[in-house]
Specification:
- By secondary structure, the protein is of the alpha+beta class.
- It folds into two domains: 302 residues, no CATH class; 162 residues, Jelly Rolls (Sandwich), CATH 2.60.120.
- It contains twelve helices and 15 strands.
- The strands form four sheets. Strands 4, 6, 7, 10, 13 and 15 form a six-stranded antiparallel sheet that branches.
- Strand 6 and strand 7 form a beta hairpin.
- Helix 3 packs parallel to helix 6 and helix 3 runs antiparallel to helix 7.
Length: 487
């Protein structure tokens, strides 16, 4: 806003003009039930379903779902509020009409941005209320405040992305394009299924997505295991915001729309174009790269303490807990040649299932022809059903820690019914943390399963347990394992 353009408008009137535009934009969205109702209620409904009903007796899973659904609720107001609405208003000529009105420069963008932030604030407040009242989640006031601030500010990258979509696509195509981005982005970021349960290719792709970085910040604020440092995540989100905002401004400016600055250069193009915008895009890409490479650090678990050291996660990623007992020199864990499920060290292999945490799945073990046979049934009733066999390398179960930091690979032979299984490692300071998992398939013939510890184990120096299990689909399963060793 310059005095030359609005010489008679006082500061108070400018503030009132901005506030009025924000208020009208918010009321317009509230009066659009097709947008307001699902945007405000879906995150709460999904949290009640996955974080309360299906995660009963599992506080860690419920709290993680709280963080993930908060991020899921943050994405929609920015993507749909900017992307779809802008596309329709641009196509129908309303955007050009608004430019003819005596509105302060940037008022349209500011109103949209504040609308998105208000919607996110309502969603975050609703989730916190449900967490404290219905779920009884162990979330402190300080943690809730951190998550609230992260989500309200975290809508900005999605506003920029929605703005860019709305500036390029037509009004008819915008809803489909936004949904094609919104839903896959949520899944690939681990909001619906934890990343450790997804293929490695998906895990490698996740750091490219802003929703992943926002989710890691929310998990860290709740003292749950997270990857990367706060600085790297903030850099990635800032980079996404800058890149997509500048791209949108250049696109709109080339079509004669001036949403950010009413002052126009002599050539008739907004000042955001040209070399300045190119430099801004380069800076944004550099910030995004910082976020992607910063995310390579190991996961951080800060159970029972604060995340004050999270910024240093790249240099000191391991939790502040004593290292485990040094692993025996021999690589063999169990060969089952003795006819029992005993191991060379540790507590041996025993059955495990989600029945121990309120589920209904079952598992049973027996040694057959010198191999451990695991058979059982996966039943619904738990958010992440599982049934299989578990090995505790150092007793007592889930309390003792084994140091495998000098080893590189866990190897076992497996055959089964053709189903999908996973080798999971419990390896953080928090015994209730979600394990990291390596998926594999077991067919009718024996095959070697090799698990690279560097890629799939959070902290090899503090391994509590190793589990081989089925996670679905529902129904009976049968798996045999043999010659388990860690090299």
């Amino acid at each position: 806003m310059s005095a030359a353009l609005y010489p008679r408008m006082s500061t108070a009137r400018l503030v009132a003009a901005y506030a009025g535009d924000i208020r009208l934009e918010f009321i317009k969205m509230l009066r659009t039930p097709a947008f307001a109702v699902p945007t405000l209620l879906f995150p709460a409904m999904f949290y009640l379903l996955f974080g309360v009903l299906l995660a009963r007796n599992n506080a860690a899973a419920g709290t993680m779902t709280f963080a993930h659904m908060g991020v899921f609720g943050t994405m929609a107001p920015g993507l749909f509020g900017f992307g779809v609405s802008l596309a329709f208003e641009r196509e129908q000529g309303l955007l050009r009409f608004k430019q003819a009105l005596p509105m302060p420069p940037g008022s349209y963008l500011l109103a949209r941005m504040m609308m998105a932030m208000l919607f996110v604030a309502i969603i975050a407040a609703l989730l916190v209320t449900l967490a404290w009242t219905v779920a009884g989640a162990p979330i402190t006031m300080a943690q809730a405040a951190k998550v609230f601030a992260i989500e309200v500010l975290g809508v900005l990258p999605f506003c920029a992305l929605g703005l860019c979509i709305g500036s390029f696509v037509s009004g008819q195509a915008a809803p489909a394009i936004v949904n094609l981005i919104y839903l896959p982005m949520a899944f690939l970021s681990g909001l619906w299924v934890p990343l450790q349960f997804l293929p490695k290719a998906v895990q490698d792709l996740a750091p490219l997505l802003p929703s992943h970085h926002l989710a890691q910040l929310a998990l860290a604020a709740l003292d749950l295991p997270s990857k990367g440092s706060t600085a790297s995540h903030v850099a990635a989100l800032a980079g996404v915001t800058v890149v997509f905002f500048v791209l949108a401004m250049r696109r709109l400016g080339n079509r004669g729309f001036r949403l950010f600055d009413a002052a126009v250069a002599a050539g008739g193009r907004p000042r955001v174009a040209g070399a300045v915008s190119g430099i801004a895009i380069a800076i944004g890409i550099a910030l995004m790269a910082m976020g992607v490479f910063g995310n390579r650090s190991s996961a951080v678990a800060a159970a029972g303490g604060s995340k004050a050291d999270a910024d240093a996660a790249t240099d000191a990623p391991r939790p502040a807990a004593p290292a485990g007992v040094a692993a025996p020199a021999a690589p063999l864990i169990a060969s089952f040649d003795s006819g029992t499920s005993a191991a060379v060290y540790g507590t041996g292999w025993s059955e495990t299932s989600d029945r121990h945490v309120g589920g209904a799945s079952t598992a049973a073990l027996r040694v057959l022809d010198g191999a451990l046979e695991i058979h059982g049934t996966i039943r619904p009733g738990f958010q992440w059903p599982f049934a299989g066999a578990i090995f505790f390398p150092e007793g007592p179960p889930m309390e003792g820690l084994m140091d495998y930091s000098s080893r590189k690979t866990l190897v076992l032979r497996a055959r089964g019914d053709g189903g999908k299984y996973a080798v999971s490692f419990f390896s953080t300071a928090d015994r209730n943390a979600i394990p990291s998992s390596f998926p594999f398939e077991a067919g009718a013939t024996w095959r070697d399963v090799r698990v690279p510890l560097a890629d799939f184990v959070v902290d090899p120096s503090r391994v509590r347990a190793i589990m081989v299990a089925s996670h679905g689909p529902d129904g009976d399963f049968r798996l045999q394992i043999d010659d388990v060793r860690i090299e």
